[in-house]
Each structure stands twice: as C-alpha cells, then as structure tokens.
Amino acid sequence: MMRIVNLMEDTQGESSCSCEHGLCFYVETEKHKVLVDTGASALFLENAKKKNIDISTVDTVVITHGHYDHGGGLPFLFACNPNAKVYLQEEAYGEYYSLREDQPHYIGLDPQTKDNSQIVFVQGNLKIDNELFLLNEIEIRYPIPSANKRILKKDGEDYVEDDFRHEQCLIIKTEGKQILFAGCAHHGILNIMEQAVKDYGKEPDMVIGGFHMKKQEYSEQDRDDIVETAMKLKQYQTQFYTCHCTGEKPYEVMKSIMKDKLHYIHCGDEMQITGSRNDRTQKSDI
Q1: What is the b/e burial string over 114-148, where b = at least 16 CB atoms within 10 angstroms of the residue's CB?
Q2: Can you give the pLDDT at residue 101?
Q3: What was the pLDDT predicted at 286?
Q4: Mean pLDDT across 74-92
Q5: Per-residue pLDDT for 225 more than 90?
Q6: What backbone phi and psi angles, to 5 degrees, belong to 175?
Q7: Cα–Cα distance between 92 and 108 in angstroms, integer?
Q8: Which DSSP category does 11 fall into?
Q9: How high is the pLDDT of residue 11?
Q10: How many angstroms separate the CA atoms of 277 and 122, rounded?
C-alpha cells in the first residue's frame, strides 16, 4: 500500500495542519519514504508531526524546481535528517525572480544550502532505482503556462524569461501503479503528460501537482487555453489531483469539464493507494 500525504499547500484542509504558499508531499512506498518538495519554511515539519510522520526516516527528497516555495524548507530538513539524498537539477540554484508590480523579487533557493553533502545534482532524466524516476527532458508541443512570463532568471546583469531547465517531475512505479508528481508543471501539464507516456510507455495512473494557471486577470486567450487543457486531459484515463498554483478560477473551469477525473488537494489531505485500485480512504476529503 502506498501512502500520500500533503504536508504543505496554499489552502486549509485538515484543521490541525497549517498552510502557507508552498508545496510538500510525503510519500511512503514499499521501498522508500520520500519527500516531494519541502514548502517555503519549517512549517512542513510541524504538519508532519501532526500526521505522525517522522521526517528523520525519509530517505529520498526530490525538489521539483529552484523556487523558495518548493525548497525553502531545505535548511530545516537538513537539521533533522542528515541522511536523506536530495535530488535537484544542476540549475536549481540559479538566480530566479518573480515580477511583482513590475519589479523583480528573488524567489530562488537559499544559496547557503547548495554545498550540503546530501545534495545530488542531476542533469536531465535519471533512474534512481526501479521505483523512482526523474523526468526533465520535456519536449514543448503545447503552449506553456502564460503565468510563466512573470518568472525570470538573472543572466549577467539582465533578467530573461526562465526556461525552467531546473524543473523536474518525479515518477513513482509501485503497487502496479505509475504516479507522476508534477510540481508546478511550468513546462505545461500537456507537454509533461505526452513526455511521460512517450518515455514510460503508458499513461500515469495518477498525476499530482499544480498547473501554474493562477493569475490576477485572465485574458480570453487564457480562458481558451484552460478549456483546451481540460479537454485534452479528460481524454486520458489518468486521475488528476491538483493544488497550489493552479488557481481557483482555472480549477472551477477545468472541474466543470473533467468532472470526477479532477480533484483538489488541500493541506493535510491524505490518500492510500493499493495495487488493485485507487483507494480514496482519507482522513481528509480531497
């Protein structure tokens, strides 16, 4: 049986867990105890205690990309767990910024964590073992999220649009299932889905992550892209669990199209997966 617990997300779920802008999942498989991202602070550790999860026993950590809301908890992870291997793409410690009121604000990782001996830098795709796989080399066939345009990286003295070479997805194969953790899907969830099918020969049984559609204002083109994304995702047999950066309005539109193929994960939500089917017996509803 596979256990998946959300330890950090932007919205309140189980009342005992505190939420913040960030993302962190705990995943327990037959062979591993995994963290996918660490949220923005030490708050994921407090939620882990409330969910009776001992972070010191985690053996593998995957940081999906080099933003503080996904890797801001790294200093606190290192303090309580000196053994887990932490996988990041080589460019994860670049200088990344978000435009806020037309001014760049730093959103990258704490550079002081870069030289920790637990970090494993990765170039491209990687097979960690027979359960865990990192997906990075993603072909762009569909439009990437328009919200990406406000995310920049510093190149010398210039700010340029981030190409997200530092983003990676985690694929877990266990219990006869294939689960894909997409982080924020900055490459575009449709591109990630096609690449996963191409590289691994089947549709994921489950996809978990944000779709990076959240914006203050939506153009007509944005709305068309959201509808098209939902229509194409609906054609997969996959169950989608979204969160964090998808946005309330895009989620409502996609839910109206995808129906029971799309669900929202809140902070503290939990599910258990067996080899025969998705067992949605949770302590909090998703």
Answers
A1: eeeebbeebeebeebeebbbbbbebeeebebbbbb
A2: 86
A3: 60
A4: 98
A5: yes
A6: 55, 30
A7: 8
A8: S
A9: 96
A10: 33
Question: How do the domains of the chain map onto residue ranges?
Answer: 2-279
Give the C-alpha separation, 218 to 215, whole Å: 7
- Give the distance from CA 32 to its chain's centroid: 18
- Tokens at 180, concatenated: 């894909």
What per-residue confidence (pLDDT) applies to 276? Answer: 56
Mean pLDDT to the nearest integer, 247-251: 97
Judged against a pLDDT cut of 70, whether residue 280 lies above it is answered with no
For 261, the token pair is 């193929």
Strand-pair category, 270-273 with 278-279: antiparallel
List Cβ neighbours of 72 (8 Å cut-off, separation of 6 or more).
Answer: 22, 38, 39, 40, 41, 109, 110
What's the length of the chain?
A: 286
d(CA 9, CA 184): 12
Whether residue 275 is predicted with pLDDT greater than 90 in this model: the reply is no
Three-state DSSP state, 230: helix
| Rounded Cα distance, 60 and 27, in Å | 10
Distance, CA of 178 to CA of 207 (rounded, Å):
9
Nearest alpha carbon to residue 70 among 115, 103, 108, 96: 108
Q: Of all residues in the chain, what percent are helix, strand and coil, respectively (each to 5)? A: 25, 30, 45
Of residues 235, 177, 187, the one with CA closest to residue 210: 187
Domain 2-279 has CATH 3.60.15.10: yes
Which residue is it, tokens 């037309």? 102
- Give the residue among 261, 208, 248 at the shortest CA–CA distance from 26: 208
Average pLDDT over residues 97-111: 95
CA geometry: angle 197, 203, 206, nearest 5 deg = 125
